[in-house]
Design brief:
Blueprint lengths: L1 E3 L1 H5 L15 E4 L4 E4 L10 E3 L7 E3 L3 E4 L7 H8 L2 H9 L12 H5 L8 H40 L6 E2 H4 E6 L16 E4 L16 E2 L1 H6 L4 E2 L4 E4 L7 E3 L7 E3 L3 E6 L6 H10 L1 H10 L10 H5 L2 E2 L4 H39 L5
Parallel strand pairs: 9-14
Antiparallel strand pairs: 1-2, 2-5, 3-4, 3-6, 7-16, 8-15, 9-10, 11-14, 12-13, 12-15
């Protein structure tokens, strides 16, 4: 690993990025070096890669470690070793600092014990893991295609349709969650009535992440914030502009102040269509850009959302779109299950590989 100050780094003629892009020193790396993230959440998400350079040297920020293979240590073997979940977990235990600034220290890599079988064996193990990883990548490519397919369907059907109505005109109810002292973090409990937040919508699909609950007694005071199946949830604070439809199997739940909940008028507006308009319709997106002055949708509010223009057309046409999206989502769920199984099998293969089990 090599870290240089700005003056030293400028003396290096070949780089992979302009020096002006980083402000607190530079990390130098070479072709085939293994690069491992230092800080949360990148390290916890398994961000370990390998440099592939046309130049003799690369320069980047100081937020990653450079782990250099040797004549006795094959580069792909090293890469796969550092990508193991157990190595990532061990690195997390060694992190220093607090909050979002926690870092994996250099000493973790310096003291890391790596089994080093003969080079032919390392190459064999690396080839097996490379092949297995390539199969996982192909499955993820299919998943990425399905992720964009619903958007393509929306544009094909509705992209040229002008927005002639607004969210407020087509919704029966629009509300945000409880503010301030209405709901304190200290009032969350281990089980009870679910409380939905940003983590439930951040991926533009409804998912359970961190579970938060309030007591039934507390819920009685917050019933007006109840979320129902078919509601459309939009994030308005933090990671804003994310949008999901609440699934049919949702238990009794409320939303936090970070979420705006919309109940569509069922006779005129399908929730899947409303979500699509919010995420993809050009008139709707232009409205959001104007209101947020070209920023990253920071600070959405109910006024902006109520005034958002949307196209409107017969409910039957909206339902045709919703059925096509439902079919895409079913395929996507099947691929996601396969990807999860791939990941589990690959982790098992990694463990066996570095314990002499291949």
């Amino acid at each position: 690993m090599a870290e240089l100050n700005a003056e030293q780094a400028r003396a290096i003629p070949l780089t992979t990025r302009p020096f002006g892009e980083v402000s607190k020193g530079y990390t130098v790396f070479r072709d085939r070096d293994v690069l491992a993230a230092k800080i949360t959440p990148c390290w916890e998400n398994g961000k370990v890669g390998q440099a592939e350079l046309d130049h003799a040297v690369g320069v980047g920020s100081t937020e990653f470690h450079v782990v250099r293979p040797t004549e006795q240590l094959h580069d792909r073997y090293l890469l796969h070793f550092l990508r193991q979940p157990r190595v990532r977990a061990a690195g997390e235990l060694r992190m220093t600092g607090s909050g979002g600034q926690r870092r994996v220290p250099t000493a973790f890599f310096e003291e890391l014990a790596i089994p080093v079988p003969p080079l032919p064996e390392q190459r064999r193990i690396a080839a097996i893991l490379d092949h297995a990883d390539a199969l996982r990548a192909k499955r993820r490519q299919v998943l990425a295609h399905l992720d964009s397919l619903s958007q393509s369907i929306f544009h094909d059907i509705f992209g040229d349709l002008r927005a002639t109505s607004t969210v407020a005109a087509e919704a029966s109810k629009i509300r945000t969650g409880p503010f301030g002292s209405q709901l304190l973090h200290s009032e969350f409990v281990e089980e009870g009535i679910a409380v939905l937040g940003l983590d439930n919508v951040v991926g533009n699909e409804f998912r359970w992440a961190e579970r938060r609950f309030i007591t039934p007694v507390k819920y009685e005071t917050l019933k007006r914030y109840t979320v129902s199946p078919g509601d459309v949830l939009i994030s308005i604070m933090g990671t804003t502009g994310r949008c999901v439809v609440v699934p049919d199997d949702i238990p009794t739940a409320i939303n936090t102040k970070h979420i705006c909940a919309i109940t569509p008028e069922s006779a005129r507006l399908h929730p899947t269509f409303l979500r699509g308009a919010f995420l993809w319709h050009p008139d709707s997106l232009a409205h959001l850009r104007r209101q947020t002055k070209g920023s990253i949708m920071d600070g959405l509010n109910m006024g902006i959302i109520k005034a958002m223009p949307i196209p409107i057309l017969p409910l039957a046409a909206q339902e045709v779109f919703a059925k096509r999206v439902e079919s895409v989502n079913a395929q996507r769920a099947a691929i996601q299950r396969a990807v999860a199984a791939d990941d589990e099998l690959f982790a098992s293969l990694q463990s066996r590989a570095f314990r002499g089990g291949l």
